[in-house]
Each structure stands twice: as C-alpha cells, then as structure tokens.
superoxide dismutase
Amino acid sequence: MRKFWRKLLGYFLVGMGMVILLFSCQTRQVTQSQPTTTTPAATPKATPTTAQTPATFPPVASVNSEATLPAKLPPLPYGFGALEKAIDAQTMQLHHDRHHAAYVNNLNDAIKQYPNLQNRSVESLLRDLNSVPENIRNTVRNNGGGHLNHTIFWQIMSPNGGGQPTGAIAQEINQTFGSFDGFKKQFNSAGGNRFGSGWVWLVRNPAGQLQIVSTPNQDSPIMDGNYPIMGNDVWEHAYYLRYQNRRAEYLDNWWNVVNWAEVNRRAQASGQRS
Ligand SMILES: [Fe+2]
C-alpha cells in the first residue's frame, strides 16, 4: 500500500515538473518574440544621406507669389496706350491679349493630361524641366517661360516710369557697372546682339551679383539659377509695328517706361535666396 502511494507521488511530481517545464518554455517564447517588433533594435536605422535640403528661391512671377497652375493671364496694370513713351497701344494690346494669352492657353493645354503637375508652380517646372514628361517638356519650356517672362515684363513697366534709377538698385548698378549710362549701354548691347527672338535681363546670379544676360526664345533666367530683376522683350512682336527693324531705337526708348519702384522690390527679393 505504501508502495502505491510512493508511486503516485512520483507520477505527480513528474507531471508537475513537465507542466512547469512546458509553461516556462512558452513564457520564454513570448518574451523572445516581443523585441523583434517593439524594441529600438528592430527599428530600421536612419540611413545617412548626402542629399542637401533644396535651396529656397524667392517667388519670381511677382515678389509676393509664384505663377500658379492652371496659368491665368494677369490683367495689364495700366491701359494699352499708357506706355506710349515707348510702346504703342496696338502693340500692347496684341502683345498682352494675343501673345501672352496664347502662352497661357498652350501651357494649360499641355499640362491638362498630367494632374500631378497642376499642384506645382510654373517656376518649379522651369527650374526642373527634367521632371516634366518628355512629350510636353518643350511646350512647357516655351509657354511656361513665355507666361512667366511676360508676367514680369508688365510689372516692371509703368506710365510714370523712366528717368534715373532710384533706391538701392541705383547704388548697386553704379557699383557693378560703373554708372547708369554704362549699365544701359551694356544692357542695350546685349539686347541688340540677341540673334532672332529672346530677352535681355538684369539678373542676380547664384553668387549674389548683378549680371546682364540674354536668353533665347522664351527661356527664363531661372533655368540657369538666376533671379530676373528686370528684362526687356526683344521679340519682334514687342516693337515691330512702331519700330520695324529698328530694335536699337526701341531699346533706347524703353528706358522711358521702366518702373524703378518695382525693380527695387524685385532686386530686394532677389537677395532672399537661402
Ligand atoms: Fe513678348
């Protein structure tokens, strides 16, 4: 009888031992599985990157805002005949209502099939043309550039413009080009030497210096990292009705309508790149 109780106790102890062993194994499995999902070691380490934070570029269409999409034809800030000191009313009307309007319409038609581009600005497309689908890249370059260039052009002219430059830009022009006359001469020369169609610009280059550049067709200075402070349109559509082939005379007269107040605002904005 005593043998029986001893055997029973043995079975009981062995059973208890197995239960404890099984329980301890399960506990270990649970505690081992947790770290793989929750501990910092399981979190992927941040990959070191050499990419730089993109530089910010001040708005170009105006000192307050970039040119949004879909593009809109901005109204002229004065009447068609207001710039007669340099440009006749009919040229202004055709230039704004037909030529600029066509750039706007062509740009919008091109991006219609790409809704993701419509969240971007005209400036951002022109700065990174490689990000624009190849089949519309040239259309965006020509018409986006045309829209942006003309948007600036209307603002930097005024019926009350002309005369000597004022404000900080006057001093910076003297420092960079020696004198206003020297600057005008270089600017007009660059505009006169542009073969075919294009623009002549005063830009702030990436080094922060004033520079005169000329761009072909409707290329924007921002495509080269330059901020356009002021520019003159030397396409024949800008002057031919009054001046015919006398581009030099148009370039000379154009100074009578330069809006120095706006040029100063743009020059100041151009220095805010970081
Ligand atoms: Fe034009």
Remarks:
- The longest strand covers residues 198-204.
- The mean pLDDT is 86.
- The radius of gyration is 34 Å.
